[in-house]
Amino acid sequence: MKTIALIVAAGSGSRMGGETPKQFRTIGGKAVLAHAVDALAGHPRIDAVRVVISADAQEDARSALGSRDVGDFIVGGASRSESVRNGLAAIEADRVLIHDAARPFCPPQVIDRLLDALDSHQAATPMLESADTLAGQSDDKLGDVVDRAAIVRVQTPQAFHTHVIRAAYDAYDGAPTDEAQVAKAFGVDVALVEGDAMLDKLTTQGDFDRAERQFAANMVSRTGMGFDVHAFDGPGPVIMGGIEVPHDKGLKGHSDADVLLHAITDAILGAAAMGDIGEHFPPSDPQWKGADSEAFLLHAAQLVRGAGGIIDHVDATLICEAPKVGPHRAAMRANIARILDLDERAVSVKATTTEKLGFTGRREGIACQAIASVRMEAK
Ligand code: CTP
Ligand code: MG
Prior knowledge:
Layout: E1 3-9, E2 26-27, E3 30-31, H1 32-41, E4 48-53, H2 58-65, E5 74-75, H3 80-90, E6 95-100, H4 108-117, E7 123-129, E8 134-138, E9 141-146, E10 152-154, E11 158-161, H5 162-171, H6 180-185, E12 190-194, H7 205-217, E13 219-235, E14 238-240, E15 243-245, E16 249-251, H8 259-271, H9 277-280, H10 294-306, E17 310-319, H11 329-340, E18 347-352, H12 358-361, E19 365-377
Bound molecules: cytidine-5'-triphosphate (CTP) and magnesium ion.
């Protein structure tokens, strides 16, 4: 039995406003669409996720999704229901979950309830009861109270036996706002399962701001450390933080021996528990010989951000008797801030000697310690 999740993301987000459609805007540094894809793709009972986008959004969707595997994009239509129709025509599956990209957070329990309900029903939708009093309105005046016990708020994802929702859509004339009503109009009993407030749709800027706050509250700050040493060997200059610092000796290393960038790279990887620099850039691999360490740092930052991490701050201490770091500190900070796309205030570079003690004191090499703070989803 094959279950596919179909995410519709071909809307223009007109009620939200702004230049970028809401599904491509970020919450906690990660695109809304990517949140929705991760929530569904990460569920063990879902075999694949496919995404419906508008014809001109290929680039936005690609960059929102990074390396996530959603097969070829399906091109949507002028209305949500047209987009769903196109999606249904493009997939092969026994069961389908149809979901709005504009609902980025889908708890796994809701998916379980929906798929369980499909064992006894041909269609199922999550819903929430209203805690507020519900009433009609006309001409800005309060109308009659509606019995709230008789009303539910209908969410997505909605789950169907694929052939049933296809047949229901074939028979349907009009532009429905969801599929449960299409199935119902076709005479199908649609099971109601408990939804979740996390599934509320992002429609207005206010919804978005609330979701951003809610998400941030679920992020924890993690700290990573890095340490690196390079020995002096041959003529200068030395490269520290991507800056050439004049010195009579240079540093020995497989790459450009940038002790400062290496330590910061490891600190960032450490904060996200994503391995270390040697694992990602093995010295045995000829492609890194003489490499500009900027590439290492940038790659580490992209890995961490791709996993939803927000890099908040890095701090490093260079340990050497010479060369003097002070005159180059500002340039190093600016360069690291540029590579990491951080405000300079979030980048600190310090230096110390070891009072002529140890290998750094004997001027045999330079050591560097670094620390990074990264906010990650608590899970
Ligand atoms: N959608 C779609 N194709 C359309 C219109 C909407 O795939 N032609 C998708 C949206 O991208 C969204 C979901 O359907 O994920 C729910 O629609 P809605 O919240 O109305 O989003 P938009 O249509 O983008 O927003 P608005 O109505 O404010 O323009
Ligand atoms: Mg719409």
